[in-house]
Amino acid sequence: MTTNQRTKSQRLVTTTPLTSVGEELKSIKHKISKDLFDGISVRKISSKGELANRVLTISDDLFLLFISHHKVGSKESIKDRFNYQGFKAYSKAVTTLTGRGVQAKHNLKVIDVSDILFVAHGHVCSQKLEFAEKKTKKDEARRIISIYHNNAITTDFITESDEEKVEVLNAIELIRKVYQKYKSYVGREELLLRYAWYDTDMNKSGLVDQEEFLMLLQRINVYLKKEKAVRIFKDSIKSAKNETKTTNRLGSKSGRQGITFDECIALLREISLRENESSMSDTIFDELFGKDNDTVSAEDFLAKFIREKQTENSVTLDDVSCIFSELNSMEISGSVSHSGEEGFIDRMRFQEYLMSARNEAYDPAKTRFDAEKMDRPITDFWVDSSHNTYLQGDQLKSYSTVQMYVVALHRGCKCLELDCWDDNGTGIPVIFHGHTLTSKISFSSVITCVKKYVDEHPDTMPIILSLENHCSLPFQEQMADTLERTLGSNLYIPDPNGELPSPSRLVGLVLIKGKQIEDGDATETTASSFEDDETGALEEQIHLSLRVGGAAKGREQPLPDIVPELSRLTLFNGIKFKSFADSSNLNPHDMHSFSETKALKILNNPLNCDQWREYNTNHMSRVYPKGIRTDSSNYNPLPAWHAGCQLVALNYQTEDSSMALNVARFRENGRCGYIPRPPRTFLTGKEESMRPEAALVSIKALSGSCLPKPYGESKGEVIDPYLTVKLYDVNINDEHDIVSTIEYRTSAVRNNGFCPIWNSDTFTFTVRCPEIAFVEFTVMDCDHGFLDDFMCRAAIPVNCLRNGIRCIQFFDKCSQQHGPLGMARVLVDIDVKYEL
Q: Which residues sit opposite 563 in a β-bridge?
């Protein structure tokens, strides 16, 4: 159906607050195909791969994408037409396509622009797409669009034409670009309310009535007794100017029955002050600039706050003037802009600064990409690495899917694992966890996925494919052909006699870790379950008992020989470890892989640890989880990083504290996936003992702001949040290296996730290894008498912490920020003192 065949009455209209972000989005509306506002026909792909006809529509304000059974007319409200019951950010056990979908009679699905993580297209890259592949025509694969959002959930559909696919992709890219750019010009509380407004203003009047206001309070974690909340709401209505002369927007002429967006924000801030007597930012403002002042000058801000409290001595008055200019240009309800009065900000804009990225505890200077450091040999870097990348869940019976490679690459992972096996049924190499019930995916589909990523990100640092090769010779020939044919010029062909190159020389290239043909070499046992003899008999016994189909293979059987076609493509040659004395004379291309069991055994011996560090100066080492972690749990990566190991592989599908540490580690250097190893990881024990740098870290938890419900739910009780602060450090002594942990927690604040104040005691940590250690901040919901619920977490390397009153930005269980989680903050007071 063409545009001129549709009527304006079919246009989907939403009424959301006219924030500055909304105005910027409206300014690009003419660049987006009108068909998308009227609705285009698509085929949605269900979680089981079923195809269903749907209509994709972009809302007039450009904040939302709708997928519905049929077109939505402007004369009917969403509530009436679809039995509207509100949004859910994502479900605890989500099985639907969208994470933020309306629970509705006709199954209307909604995705907010702030929920979108990234968009993939033109390739079968999720489990449900693999299910659907058999039901689609060959030319339809290129028209698949997958929108990743809320914990990497996907909404997948097929457009009717290539032209409509391009229109949808261009529209989403443009909308996201504008939203991400201009949301920084709006206060976080305004952004949170905007996010919840569509859920709350159910009849799309532009006002929220009493019932909707009560629902909104619970949604954003503000608790008031119903009688008190109703009284506050009615008082706000009474104070509205000219209410008896105004025809309300709900259609009645007896006086306005709802409150506007600005009035709602004002009420929320009034409630916050009533609950806490004063905000934490006001307390800080009073201590720094005086209780009688409502504004602060640039000079006082620089002298008393930036330099004295925050110890940022390099900041100049010109820098502060730029900060003030940005703050005064922000849209903050109830705050007076001092843009006409240069050199001043008020209290509310000071609060926004405290919670902004400029004031984050994680030093922004450490997150910037440093191209000059990338000329060092690749052995000098920690590389973001995953183990059994293909698995969605446990190691025994979960799905294998190309989608996990897509997610890992977009999260910054630069070393992917491929367990390759023969599939005699299809005659092609496949990837799965051998001798288990995990499902299979084709080797070629993963390589196509990697190629697509490199094409879309030509400046990516090198991607390493760690091939765990169990294939017979004919299947290996297929693998080599697929690699060369699919990757083309993006495949690095190594010089077997050359030195290992630097990452800067390998930009946009794919490297192969596997096995090379060598005379008289010891075959490396690369099966993930028991790669090293020392992994333990228990691990082998468990894995042998779980194997299904085919003859069980004991570890005494060597893996197949390597075909020359695959050998010549391999840069990193896996060699079975015997001793570091033997390994010291190996070619730089030769490397070892160690299970965590083997790694910890080495680290328990100081002499071995010194030899391992020396080996890692010129060679690569990979560490991976022990075989008995069948639940895909993770080990702590700190000891391996401390030993200088470059490839410390974790189970990406398991979002635990170990993965949080990994995410924090690789936020550095522009999230490029390569971090220059610190000097400590090159030192022997004697040299390290002569470098006794340590740190004393003191942290005081002050307050929280806009904290979400557990699992991002929109419904449920108002939370009782508390904060845990935990140190992970490497304990160095004469006997062994182990991880030491110290944890503190605040008290829980009852019924307040919108603006809880802890103002805790000061938590003090002695850090022995600041270049390796981390501090982890976790927000929990106190479930009195039950197991407490995880809400969000963030980890920060100790050497990336900044002194002063700083904010913590949080991540969900998938180490992502989306929707309301992007507005959540915790304010802490940090003091780091180094002992030299």
A: none
Q: Dihedral sign for Cα 248, 252, 253, 255, please.
A: negative
Could you tell me the end-to-end alpha-carbon distance of the chain, in angstroms, rounded to an integer? Answer: 72
Per-position b or e across 790-827, b if 16+ CB within 10 A of its CB: ebbbbbbbbbbbbbbbbbbbbbbbbbbbbbbbbbbbbb
Q: For residue 127, give the H/E element and its range.
A: helix 127-132
3-state secondary structure (DSSP) of residue 493: coil
Beta-ladder partners of 68:
55
Residue with tokens 């509205």: 240
| Pairwise CA distance, residues 342 & 333, whole Å | 20
Q: Which of 443, 449, 404 is nearest to 141 (CA)?
A: 449
Helix orientation angle between 20-27 and 162-182, rounded to the nearest 10 degrees: 150
pLDDT value of position 18: 55
In this structure, are residues 694 and 766 in contact, taking their beta carbons and an 8 Å threshold?
Answer: yes
Measure the CA–CA gap between 502 and 249, rounded to whole angstroms.
64
Residue type, 189: E
Amino acid at 448: T
Instruction: Determine the pLDDT at residue 531.
Output: 44
For residue 192 the two structure tokens come to: 């949170």
Q: Which two tokens stand for residue 315?
A: 């900041």
In sequence order, what are the residues at sequence separation of 6 or more whose Cβ sits closer than 8 angstroms to the Cβ of residue 448? 123, 486
What crossing angle do the helices spanning 210-219 and 226-239 adopt, rounded to 10°? Answer: 120
Residues 387, 650: contact at Cβ < 8 Å? Answer: yes
pTM for this entry: 0.88
User: pLDDT tens for residues 540-560?
Assistant: 444 444 444 433 344 444 555
